Amino acid sequence: MLKILIADDHALMREGIQMVLDRFDKKYQLTNTTNYEEVLQQINETPDFDLILLDLNMPGYKHFSGLEQVLSGAEKTPVIVLSASENPADMQQSIDLGAKGFVPKSASNEVLVAALELVLSGGIYIPPQLFNYSRNNENATQNSAALQPAITRRQKEVLALIAQGESNKEIGRTLGLSEGTVRTHVNAIFKLLNVNNRTQAGVKARTLDLL
Where would I find the HTH luxR-type domain in this sequence (predicted)? Predict the structure, then answer.
């Protein structure tokens, strides 16, 4: 009999998951939890769960810190993240941290069943949105290769400090440059990246893998 832990703070979602499990071609024993504290307590008391279905955002921890705690406490148990988020970056980070799947709550029952079967057989469920995201990242990497020669070593140093939130004065102090020289570098960086402010520059630099 499969031991499955459901972690979601919405009763309707837990009931919906149970209805999907009832269609599953396996007998199971279900444990329900509503916050990260209960999840961690359960995996400590019952380390032999066969599967954990985990809502990414529940009371107790902020965003990915809760997932990290669960993955650390249940090293041998596959975890599938269930989330209202359809942000590919959230999907990617969940998989990178060690989750065996990410299923948006908007997915159909058939998709959830397929994900359960795949993960229980030792696979990893990757949502379709993530494939598109990966392709976009590949394009961004290609753009990075084209852009990198146009940015000087000093501009890269300035850009890295911009991304860390340092002011022109702080950057000048760190690099031994006058504030006017730093301002010149910043303006040149904005033009190269086609951005209007420091926040956009930091985001664009990370997207293009310039840091």
Answer: 144-209
CATH number at residue 56: 3.40.50.2300
| DSSP letter for each residue of 41-83 | HHHHH-TT-SEEEEESS-TTS-THHHHHHHHHHTTTS-EEEEE
Predicted confidence (pLDDT) per residue in 26-85, tens digit: 789 999 999 999 999 999 998 899 999 999 988 888 778 999 999 999 988 999 999 999
Boundaries of domain holding 190: 151-207
Distance CA 202, CA 162 (A): 7
Task: Name the token pair of 166.
Answer: 């340092």
End-to-end CA distance of the chain: 49
Q: Are 1 and 90 in contact (CB under 8 A)?
A: no
Nearest-angstrom CA–CA distance, 135 and 67: 26
Domain count, the chain: 2
CATH number at residue 166: 1.10.10.10
Clarify whether residues 179 and 111 are in a common domain.
Answer: no
This prediction has a pTM of 0.63
| 155's tokens | 């501009």
